[in-house]
Amino acid sequence: MKQISVLHFGAGNIGRGLIANIYKQNDVKIYFIDTNKEVVDKLNQLKKYQIINVETNEKIEINDFKAIWSNEEKKIVDLINEVNIVSTSIQSNNLVYIQKYFQKADKSKKKDIYCFENGNKISEQFKKSLNLNSNWNFINVSIDCIIPQVINDEKMTVYVENYFEIIAQNNCYYKLKLIKYVDQIDPYIIRKLVLINGLHSAIGYLGHFLNYQYTNQSFNDENIKKQIQNLANDLILALNWKYNQFNKEDLIVYWNKITKRFCSKYINDLNVRVARNPLQKISINERFFVIYRLLNEANIDKINLIKIINYLLKFDYKNDLQSLKMQKELNNNLQLFLNNYFSYWNKKDLKTLKELYKGERC
Description:
Order of helices and strands: EHEHEEEHEHEHEEEEEHHHHHHHHHHH
Helix content: 40-55%
CATH architecture of the largest domain: 3-Layer(aba) Sandwich
CATH class of the largest domain: Alpha Beta
Number of strands: 12
């Protein structure tokens, strides 16, 4: 039987650390595509690299791959035509830059497309953006893995935590080991988006405000932990109310596992990295939009969320373009900013947020 092959956009830590290991365990040949030519050249020069588990020190060698620079358009289109699977880990806002390759590819061949990105049904959104008829399956996924912030050495080593989870919609041509396939993906995407992505970001905003550098330092602060726990309690109630896939006890066990990862000494994740792009995080279908909608549907008071959003609005970091844009707009016209970016909030909640932000309410 011919070996399955994959074209993967993104040779960063997630692509090389988590996704490449999934493919290795399935004996899949990998073609990495990346915009960073130095990374591409280094990978091709080395022809192998290691993934190291920071908790167990287990080492996995990745060696069945080739790397291609993103400017080599014809080669990439030819590879899309050739491979069985195409996947991404480039952040959802960058998917627009790879549309051109898909538009020029052969649409008749059966192919699985996985967007391993944080967000709600990103593969489905990508399909809609392409606006094409094809024999390609766009598979929605929920992906959970924290890659510790360790400076890569000259051997392109990637360090990973012991835990990971990938859940995918069961509409694929090629099933992969280590991925859990389900018929209804929505509950798992929402659970991960709110309890992990949402609360991880929240730790970043609270921690940055209190001048902590790392998220594990932040979460070990009792005041921060209490605020995060309050919102987690609300979300567990809301998830239990909305989805029959989850009971309250299982959600509590799931959350307790997350808290251990958030405060792990092995995961030094910078607050400014976790908190980056605040305007994206409050946009439609993103984590804080989903949290607000979920609490609203379950008729749960949103004060704990509003307190977190207040710290998001105070995220002021000179190396983050969205942070700079946000601070400028907030300073120019607070009410206009709130109306524009929180159009999905009701007037009562907007009033509470405004009062908190201006220090008129505790």
